[in-house]
Every structure is written in structure tokens, then in C-alpha cells.
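quick one: zinc ion bound model?
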Amino acid sequence: MSASEGRVTPDNIEEALGRWLRSPGEKDRVFPKGKKVEVVFLVEAVNALLLRTEGVEDITLFKLPGTEYEVPAILPEKLQAVSRRRMLAYLRRFRDNDPGKLAVHLKALAEVCTYEKKSGGQSSGVKVGFAKAEETKEKPAEWNCYVQPPGGDARNATDVGMDGFCPACALFGAVIDGEKLKGLGNESIGLKSRVEFDPAVAFLDQEKTVVGYTHNKVADGVSWTGQGLYMEHHVAPGTVFAGKVTLEDVTPAELKAFLATLSAIDRLGGRERLFGGVRVHLVAVRGGSYETVSALGIAKKLAERYGGAEYPPGVEEVKRAVVEELGEGFKEVDGEKFRKLVDADETWDSLWRDTVDYDRQVVERVMGLLGKTCR
Ligand SMILES: [Zn+2]
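yep, here:
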């Protein structure tokens, strides 16, 4: 990877990734073409992180293959959920900044198409459109899409709050049933996620990256020495994780909004108001028809470089090392420029435009499969 190529910015990303992006006007966007964009990034813990899978004292640890190290990791579902929630937060802000702009998109989704239904020699038109878009098209300030916290059984991912059509649903996936899409009947369709995270993996042994904190449960007025003390394991501040995410069949607007979201993530892990401050550093992108690197592979290379070092390397040094290790085809990214996109309404407006187009194609395709011709 050569530095002279110049870094990828929001202005030149279409040129940089060219044919590996889908065009917004394409008529068969709903059919995958296996156009992949690999994004390599680093997650830097700027505070102690609480990364637990279950139980109080557990922390997600990996045995880094080919090394003697056991390293902390951030599970892909965590990264997926955090990015989705972040994107939804920005979409709500876009809604509040200019409800009129959002209304245009909601109107388009409230009535996607009409098909003819014949019964007893009579023919009538059945409207197909998204329920929540219909409800909110005249009062866009009330549009919302959210991820419901899971109830008793965390495996029952619940989608009651999801609208099934917004940019986050279209990118991260959703289940659309007759409740969400009027005119669909009893069918239920799954919108596949086009975002796939690797687990983000640290490259230094837990001896250097995990710390036990003893907390004192503070009671008002009285205290009992030795009681109410408990221990939690955290990822130490300064720990750097190698991350990779692959986006499939995305448009330039979708990629820009996603990179803006990813680079702006600043909280992660359990009890995130107290712990969990992070910074995400975008490193490089590559377009192609198959994946060439993994976060695990990158972490292994970093472990070989830094595993024996007396002091952990700073994030800028790690970034340079990753750039050196990455193969042909990767282009360095200017993360700061993408982070700034989160505050531009145009980022979210164009994202909505491409999403409406995508949703319309999904609906027409599904109706076609059900033998109903959309008009
Ligand atoms: Zn949604």
C-alpha cells in the first residue's frame, strides 16, 4: 500500500472504490452482486471497558492462534448493535433537524405500489406500503425506529420497535411481516444484513490488557468494612483492538454514512456510562469480490511485532504498522473527514434516498415472488 496514492476521503471514495460500489440508480440493486468493501479499523480503549459475555467476572478472551497470548476481544454482535444504534441516533437527529425532508421519504414508502386483486370476477387495487411510514408521513417528527432491549431471554432478539424500512433496517437487516408492510398478508421476509463485522481482537496478552478493579458498593451513612466489595475485570485503558468489517453491495451514500457512524462510535461495552469510552480509528478500505484480511490475522501480525515489547505501542504507531502489513489494494482512509459527515444533513438525506430506492425494489421483488404484479 503506498502512501503516495493519497488518502480516501468522502470526496474521492467513489473514485477510489469505483466498480465495487453499487449505483443508486441501478435497477437490480436488490440482487447481490458480491461487491465487497473491506474496512480495517482500530478500536482504542480510552477508558476501562467492561466486555462480558455472561456472569459478573467474565471477559471475552481469545487464544490468539500461533501465539502464547490470550487476548480480549469485542464480539461482532456487539459491534453490529452499537453501529446500528448509533446510525439510528443520527437518523433521529436528521428527523429533528428537518422533518420536512424526512416526510418526502416517508411518503414514498407509505405507498410503494398497488397490485390488482381478483375475487369473484371483481378486480380491486391493493395498496402495498410500510405501516410506520403511513402513520408518520404527515407527522414526520413522530417517526422512529429503535432496537428494543431484549427481555428475559437475551436470545430472543426483538424487533418490535423496528420499522423495517429505514436506512438502518435496510443496511443491518430486519424482518418484515404483514404488520410492518401492509399488503404483504401473512408472509414474512428477512432483509439480510449487508454489514459483517469480524470480532475485534487485541494483540497483547491479558496480563497486559486486563485489569481487575475492586469496587466498593457505597451505602449511605453506614458501611461495613469488607462487605460490599466486589471485583470486576476490565480491559485496560490504552488497549488497542484490530477490527474489520465487510460491507456488501452498498452505494456510495450507504458507505459514507456507515463510515461516518463507525468512526463516531465512542462508547462500547457494559455499563457504558461509567466505563467503555473508546475511539474508533479508520485505517484502510479495499474493494473486491472476496475478503482478503481478517481482524484475527491483523492481530496476529501485531502480536508478532509488539508481543514482547516492554511498553504497549500507541495507537498511531499501531495504525502505521497495520498499514504496512495490509496487502495490495488497500487504501488509507482519512477517518476525521468521515467522522465530520455525521453532522451534515446531506449524509442522511442521500442515505434515505438510496434506501427508499432499495426498499421499493425489495417490495416489488417480494410481490413478484408472490405472483402479484406491482404497479
Ligand atoms: Zn428501521
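The pocket of zinc ion is lined by residues 145, 162-163, 166, 168-169 (CB under 6 Å).
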